[in-house]
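Intended use. Records like the one below are meant for learning the mapping from a protein sequence to its folded structure. Do not use them to infer anything beyond what is encoded.
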Amino acid sequence: MSAGGEEEGVRAAPDNFHAHGQSAAAERRLARAVLLDRLCRSQRWDVVVIGGGATGLGCAVDAAARGYSTLLVEACDFAKGTSSRATKLIHGGVRYLARGDLALVREALAERSRLLANAPHLVHPLRFVVPAYHWHDRARFGLGLGFYDLLAGIHGIERSRILDAAATVAALPGLNPVGLKGGIAYWDAQFDDARLAIALMRTVFDLGGLALNYLPVDDLIVEGGRVRGIIARDAESDEVFRIAARVVINATGVWADAVRRFERPAARALVRPSQGAHVVVDRSFLSGDTALLVPETPDGRVLFVIPWQGKVLIGTTDTARPDLPLEPDALPGEVDFILATAARYLVPAPTRADVHSIFVGLRPLVGEDERTATHRLSREHCIEVSPGGLVTITGGKWTTYRRMAEETIDQACAVGMLPRRPAATAALRLHGAPPGFSGDCYGSDRAVVDLLPGATRRMQDGLTLTEAEVRHAARFELARGVEDVLARRHRALFLDAARAAAAAPAVATVLAEELGHDAQWCADEVARFRALAIRYGAPAPAGECS
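Structure written out for the chain above:
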């Protein structure tokens, strides 16, 4: 689409962001009105990234770290889609090893090591045990995981080792002991996906860039056959912005083809979406600190049973999905499949009545042959440069987000004729990273959080969320509504949908105070969130906003 002249009600946007004094990260708050004003004060950005998930945020951090003026826009909230719905693992991928994707496994293991160093408040080592119910399985799994150690090399955490039956049951309280021959222990890493996304967003600001949620892109600006920017709209006010850029990066995950077709309506699809469902149950079903890996499910996948934030997460499935809902539900049979598979290994086995939350994520897999099952498609990424210079990055996984971003910005430099600058993220510590390991997702920001009102007041019995953390989410983490807080700044919706729904009125009240909203906004937010919580497994609650 050719860019025309100035339209009524449309604001122009940016000159070099680094020309304006201090960044918003240095201001008292990341106030939306201030950020939108900064957007309008620039005439052109070096790099504009569309998409606020793992890949888009990674691209924005990489570009800003190289000194390019960088803007990221997200249609909803950061990590609203796939990037908050992962299995919470930073790993090389044991099943990718079995499939022969050695290069992907080696790269992912190196990136795992970098994330452990660069985000120690959000990523930590986790021991897994693979149970063996046949003697030959113990030898087979041991050999495979020994090769996993070999591929990790200097990036390894600890070496795998073979366990006897007694040591396997001791590591996995709740494991079915009948017929157990032993197991193999190995190490990978676990993380909080949505909180890592928020840390990346904060890092963009720390580096002088700008990131805005709830700013969907309605079209691309194309002049002389080249992509020259985007047309974005503020979802809260409907104000429209024409934003010029040297290069535009499409990092919208499963929605990448829709953005590509702004430029080329007939563009062939790059993405084959699939979905993965997860269920969350009480910690009593696997009470230790070790995760269980089921190595072979009936559909040829693996199943993880993982301790996570005081609960146990079980998943995942891999089911082709032709549509792209923003809030996907589990398809018929997915939850039953997860529970039935878990029942072969856990005693007692969780039932549907034990499930506190069900969440589903869409994967942006890359593949052209529709006859290939989605679980057999590679998790490698694809970078495409269109005839008009739009750079699209899709595929991949959270573990390799940084490497994907580095390769994407290298491409963007060529397309946007930007001065070549080396990547600077391999050793870049992300926002909030403390000097050493921390079990607190706020890391070095904890002192800032606890200076806010309500540091000792819990928003709901059974949740760790405090009033101060809600205020911090509004002031410094760009939270705009109840869902932003209870689904992503805190993980209540994913851990216990019913408790999250019960917390909604108190959270809405604090947000309304922070953001300047009235009682009607508060009531609407509570109703909207409670309707969402029902889809995650919460019973329909009653009550009004307090």
